[in-house]
Design a protein that fits this description.
CATH class of the largest domain: Mainly Alpha
CATH architecture of the largest domain: Alpha Horseshoe
Radius of gyration: 19 Å
Distance between the termini: 29 Å
Structural class: alpha+beta
Helix content: 25-40%
CATH topology of the largest domain: Serine Threonine Protein Phosphatase 5, Tetratricopeptide repeat
Oligomer: single chain
Number of helices: 7
Strand content: 15-25%
Amino acid sequence: MRRPLRQWLATAVAFAALAGARPASAEGALEGTWDTPYGRIRLERAGTEYVGKLLESGRACGYGRGTEVVHGQLLDGVFTGEMRVCYARQCHPDEWLLLLGMPFRNERLVGSLMLPERGCPNGVTAGPVTLTRAKMGDLATPLPRPTPKVEMHPQAKPLYDEGVAKLSRGDGSGAQKRFKLALEYDPKNPIIHESLGVAFRLRKDYTNARASYQAAIKLGRLPSSYYNLACIFALEGKPREAMATLSTALKMGFADPDIGKDQDLKSLLDLPGFEELRRQAAERNRLRAGP
């Protein structure tokens, strides 16, 4: 399991422009259609602000069509805005981080994505970030297939949020109870099932954690669900299953460069093939961050 509240994916990634995105003036240079690890977005101006929304279901985080993932203003050649991020450990479902950047030759927007003073610690998004017009085929591994849109039943949402709050405080038992109640209203929600698995893992109930992650995979195929399941297999002393599931997580888009530091995976460190998986995760993360 990742360190508590570890973020598994952020929008601090390389963006690839679709062919046909027209050159424009400095104030209009960011408009167009783009392919991102979330899926395809359309970045448009709305008054003085740019707004980027998904044109299809997201490849990560379970975001659906029409979800806003970036917004901001381009003033005097500097882009100031925010990008959406999501968390594997459900410190909270998602968060907006400050993005400052500068367009470069209408090909890149180079800047920094900054962590807030409050919120989930240990995020991997602080520091340089590049939005770039390039072909996603340059990635060393293919992008994951789009994950289905995940919406939460309105009566399940407050129970889920209570569970998240308890989980962030290390109260696995309390979180488990809230997530189970949330599932009574929304039994097919993969995010709730995965979060329930995290609560079980916190209590070292590996059997129920595994069942919860497997249920989440069946319902939503989220990359983090595969990763968490790999951790459980490793903890249960099942290296073959752990390695295979970890490989699937990377193919689905999991890109944490620090998997070698995850204590749940320490039994895999010396196995043939683990170093290659670690290298793949680090390389994908590097490519997403841009040059």
